Amino acid sequence: MTESRTRSRRMLLLLVALFFLPLALAFAAYYSGWRPAGNTNHGELLQPIRQLPALSQSLEGKWALAWVGDGACDTDCQTALVFARQTRLSLAADTVRVNWVLLATDRCCNREYLDAAHKGIVAIDASAQRDALLAVLPTKDLPQSLFVIDPLGNIVLRFDVRQNPRGLLEDMKKLLKLSHIG
Fold first, then answer.
1. Is the pTM above the cut of 0.85?
2. Do 27 and 107 share a structural domain?
3. How far apart are the two ends of the chain, measured CA to CA in Å?
4. 157 in the same domain as 113
5. Strand partners, 160
6. In this structure, are residues 122 and 114 in contact, taking their beta carbons and an 8 Å threshold?
7. Using an 8 Å Cβ cutoff, are 182 and 151 in contact?
8. 6-42: b (≥16 Cβ within 10 Å) or e
9. What range defines the domain where residue 138 resides?
10. Which H or E run contains 23?
11. 22 and 67 share a domain?
12. Alpha-carbon span 107 to 47, nearest angstrom
């Protein structure tokens, strides 16, 4: 009978350990400050999130893929706008939740090119707010940057258009899936 009791006690201690050991490890990891090193976004998450300056035409209410620069629309602009348009169209049913935007800081806008190649783009003359707009944006590789703007007017993500476009598409799908606004 003692051997049976000992075996039962070992089994009980093993079951208790199987339950409490992972819990104890999780508490230890959490309170020691350990966090997983990986991230799943492809673009650059802007920390802290920056508020878009008030523009004459509001972008609030929808997500936006925005390019910021000269409205004459040089090669960098054209590449970025095609990239944004194709990403937006690839969102399928969520296309209606996303605008694609040209924020022209000067010489707004090359209407002939925009009407021919980008029907439906929102072109905003931001030249009056140029300094305020450029102050909140990261200046690194600005001509090759697309910015993701949330429905509340926050600039949340920067994506380099020289990267694989699938990265931006995956980031947008994830944002739209998790978002309860816009």
1. no
2. no
3. 68
4. yes
5. 145
6. no
7. yes
8. eeeeeeeeeeeeeeeeeeeeeeeeeeeeeeeeeeeeb
9. 44-178
10. helix 2-31
11. no
12. 30
Distance CA 179, CA 161 (A): 24
β-pairing verdict for 154-160 and 44-51? antiparallel
18 and 63 both lie in a single domain? no
| Structural contact between residues 66 and 149, judged by C-beta atoms closer than 8 angstroms | yes
How does strand 63-70 pair with strand 145-149?
A: antiparallel
Pairing of strands 63-70, 44-51: unpaired
Residues 68 and 133 sit within 8 Å (Cβ to Cβ) = yes
Q: Which amino acid is at 50?
A: R
- Spatial distance between the Cα atoms of 70 and 125, rounded to a whole number of angstroms: 10
Q: Which residue has the tokens 């929808």?
A: 62
From first to last of its 182 residues, the chain has per-residue pLDDT tens of 678 888 999 999 999 999 999 999 998 988 998 887 777 788 898 888 899 888 756 677 899 999 999 999 999 999 999 999 999 999 999 999 999 999 999 988 888 999 999 999 999 999 999 999 999 998 889 999 999 999 988 999 999 999 988 999 999 999 999 988 87
98-106, strands of its sheet edge to edge: 44-51, 154-160, 145-149, 63-70, 98-106, 122-125
The sign of the torsion formed by the CA atoms of 52, 74, 76, 85 equals: positive
